[in-house]
Write a structure and sequence with these properties.
The chain has 752 residues and is of the alpha/beta class. Helix content is 50%, strand content 17%. The structure holds 6-O-phosphono-beta-D-fructofuranose.
Length: 752
């Protein structure tokens, strides 16, 4: 096992805690015992000496009268007998009587000869003690007064060996007392420390996971942490916010900056991308195999990131020659001319593709999330394929993972179930899911028969990204409405089934500088070439639309606005042409098929109505265009029109801005795109309002050059700074921070 389990960590921590605390305590108590014992000995001795002094005084007083009488009578024998009898007292060791001249006249049998009548003079209370060969004795000399006349003195010798016994006993009890005290204190302290450690750790764990931020169902945090919670939380948030702001102002987001970030923050981590659409499609062509770049905002955004971090990209191999290009592991190195990362292709049967991609994803979830007045279709069979394909991709991730904690970037609505599947298979993985399309309000999402399964699946993510804060808010409210979870709006987190998901807005963007910056033809060249190729007068105005042929893009509304413009401003007839590039998309679906017919019909209708001779107001190009070609159109146009009825971001708007290094051209932009939340200098329109869009078109065509420059310059500044490296960098930085916190949680012994 690579890492110790929580139980092992906890028991070794308890042992360390015990040793760290109990050993010094025992040492301190032993030292104390050594200091205390002599003090107690001394006290004991002093009390004993005082006892002996009193005793001596008492015995001398008691013997005064009989001794005086016997001295008067001169009964030598009787005096000795009296003294001998008095020493039968257990403590009184010997007695002697000295006359006034200091001669020892009488004594009990064992009176120590060396004491005589001049025992050592007491200088303090303890000095009446004399060490004899027999042991320690207390010597007291008391006067004998007979009929008020001093006759001599009594020498009283007390055996003090009991003091030593008493000291030994006291010492024994003191050591015992301290030992018991030590044990009791250790036990209580370890117990209290253990309980409070657990309390603190629960609190810290709650903070690390953000649980403390989640009020309604949260387990109350230990009371000693409570006062600190708010402070700690706002500290963590302000550190994050400051770091973000500092990064935004100081970091110039480039491929190198992203690489440095990966190196510094996620050193050694494996980066994996999962998407349905692959970045390079091998197609069987008339001349051999052609390699196409799909018309996909997702691919536009993720491809440069992958180039910067050389990971592995797992995607559906949908090209007619895809199988021929891969090795035994279904790998192919891309980009084809200068490989920088690996593409792993997953093969789907026609039924699977129909059910998972066309069915559930594009007939169900796509209209469900876009709310563009096309009814979602939900079929159980599609759902089953969706589940199977998500599981297939989950297996592929596990097989391609070189470690148990890769960073997996899951892309889009094709893989709503994948995060939870991965969470179960690779619990330590950091899963960043990005939802490239809008997230609707709870009521709209609620009609999906598998809404709970989808929501639960997405909540396997570590980070769940949307383009705008509004979509994040919708998602939080949807989860709150339909699942039993802890949703915290303040921190934008959801806690479910032991997993915490951060729901955050990461506005997607494009590569900056644009890939063809150094090799593209000049604007003049592009203007001339495109006009010539479409038979447009060299000084004619050109409007441009670039989209997949999708009903969410508002292409019909746009063409109606062009028509309205020509109605309102007949002077533009023959002078204004509108080019619509429409990449065929999902055309096997009836809705898309009929859209194509309607777009073609409307374009033809307008051309019929306003066309004159070679003048054709609408140039509809329904075909795949390589990005480099599209860039030439951007540079040739006077106005680019984005009229999505609903769009997560819309990268066409940003690509147009990036292409205009001449700081000319005007962007007309639908307010229902994520891009409208960033590109304020565009002419913002409601695409449902045809006249308004027509007026915006006219404003764009008549806008003075200086105003175009001011607006374009400002928008270019924004896209330059808020480019796709920042989009990926922000997510990866957040992931790195979460990983660091999780590692910290493991280090301090709590399960993250
Ligand atoms: O908007 C969602 C999205 O995945 C875009 O990123 C991309 O432009 C488009 O859908 C591609 O759709 P598809 O892969 O179905 O052609």
């Amino acid at each position: 096992m690579l890492f110790p389990t929580g139980a092992k960590i906890r028991s070794s921590r308890s042992l360390r805690l015990t040793l760290r605390f109990v050993l010094p305590l025992v040492a301190a108590l032993t030292l104390l015992a050594y200091l205390v014992v002599p003090l107690v000995d001394r006290l004991n001795l002093r009390w004993s000496v005082r006892d002996m002094d009193i005793r001596s005084q008492f015995i001398a007083g008691t013997l005064q009268e009989p001794l005086g009488e016997l001295l008067e009578q001169g009964h030598k024998m009787k005096i000795n007998t009296l003294l001998a009898r008095a020493t039968q007292d257990e403590r009184l060791f010997a007695l002697g009587y000295c006359d006034g001249r200091g001669r020892l006249l009488y004594s009990s049998p064992v009176f120590p000869a060396q004491l005589g009548c001049s025992p050592p003079k007491p200088s303090d209370s303890e000095s009446p003690l004399v060490q004899l060969p027999q042991g320690l004795v207390h010597v007291a000399v008391r006067p004998v007064i007979v009929a008020d006349v001093p006759r001599g003195s009594l020498v009283l010798v007390h055996d003090m060996s009991f003091v030593q016994h008493r000291s030994a006993d006291t010492r024994k009890y003191i050591v015992l007392l301290f030992a018991v005290l030590g044990l009791v204190i250790s036990f209580i302290t370890v117990l209290v420390a253990h309980l409070s450690w657990r309390g603190w750790m629960n609190g810290v764990r709650a903070l690390l996971r953000g649980e403390g931020l989640v009020r309604p169902f949260a387990k109350p945090v230990d009371s000693e942490l409570q006062p600190l919670m708010g402070d700690l939380r706002s500290l963590l948030r302000s550190i994050d916010a400051e770091k973000r702001m500092a990064d935004d102002t100081t970091v110039a987001w480039t491929p190198d900056a992203l690489r440095t970030l990966l190196y510094e923050q996620l050193a050694g981590e494996q980066i994996m991308v999962v998407s349905n659409r692959e970045p390079y499609i091998h197609m069987q062509g008339a001349q051999g195999i052609d390699i196409l770049r799909p018309a996909s905002g997702l691919v536009t955004a993720v491809e440069p990131v992958m180039r910067a971090c050389s990971g592995i990209w797992i995607a559906h191999g949908g090209g007619t020659a895809d199988r021929e290009a891969v090795d035994r592991k279904d790998h192919v190195r891309v980009p084809p001319d200068s490989p920088e990362y690996t593409l792993r292709r997953i093969w789907l049967s026609a039924e699977e593709e129909q059910g998972y991609y066309y069915g559930l994803a594009n007939e169900g979830l796509w209209p469900l999330c876009h709310i563009a007045h096309v009814r979602p279709v939900f079929r159980t069979e599609d759902w089953e394929h969706y589940v199977t394909v998500n599981a297939r991709f989950a297996d592929a991730v596990v097989k391609e993972a070189q470690r148990d904690d890769p960073v997996v970037l899951v892309q889009d609505y094709h893989f709503a179930l994948l995060p939870l599947m991965l969470r179960k298979l690779l619990p330590r993985a950091t899963i960043i899911t990005f939802w490239h399309i809008p997230w609707p309000n709870p009521e709209s999402f609620g009609i999906c028969p598998w809404r709970d399964e989808l929501l639960r699946g997405m909540l396997g993510s570590t980070i769940l990204g949307f383009h705008t804060p509004f979509h994040c808010k919708n998602f939080l409210e949807t989860v709150e409405r339909y699942l039993e979870t802890r949703v915290d709006h303040a921190s934008s987190t959801i806690f479910r089934g032991g997993n915490l998901t951060l729901v955050e807005a990461y506005p997607i963007s494009i590569q900056w500088p644009p890939p063809w910056q150094d090799s593209q033809p000049s604007v003049q060249q592009c203007r001339a070439d495109i006009r010539r190729s479409l038979n447009i007068a060299p000084d004619g105005f050109v409007g441009l639309g670039v989209d997949r042929l999708d009903y969410t893009k508002g292409i019909l509304e746009r063409l109606r606005a062009v028509e309205q413009l020509l109605v309102n401003h007949p002077e533009l007839l023959g002078r204004f042409s509108f080019i619509q590039i429409a990449a065929p998309s999902r055309s096997v679906l009836e809705e898309y098929h009929s859209l194509e017919s309607r777009v073609r019909a409307l374009a033809a209708e307008i051309n019929l109505r306003f066309g004159r001779g070679t003048y054709q107001p609408v140039h509809l190009r329904v075909s795949h265009h390589e990005p480099r070609d599209v860039n030439r159109y951007y540079r040739a146009a006077d106005v680019c029109v984005v009229t999505s009825l609903h769009d997560g971001m819309n990268l066409v708007a940003k690509e147009f801005i990036a292409a205009r290094d001449d700081e000319r051209g005007v962007l007309v932009l639908s307010r229902f795109t994520g891009a409208a939340h960033e590109l304020y200098e565009a002419l913002i329109v409601n695409p449902y309002h045809i006249e308004q869009t027509a007026d915006a078109l006219y404003t764009a065509l008549t806008m003075p050059a200086f105003e175009q420059r001011e607006r374009m310059r400002s928008m270019r500044d924004l896209v330059r700074s808020f480019n796709v490296y920042r989009w990926a960098g922000r997510m990866l930085l957040d992931a790195a921070r979460i990983r660091q916190r999780e590692k910290l949680a493991v280090r301090i012994g709590v399960q993250p």
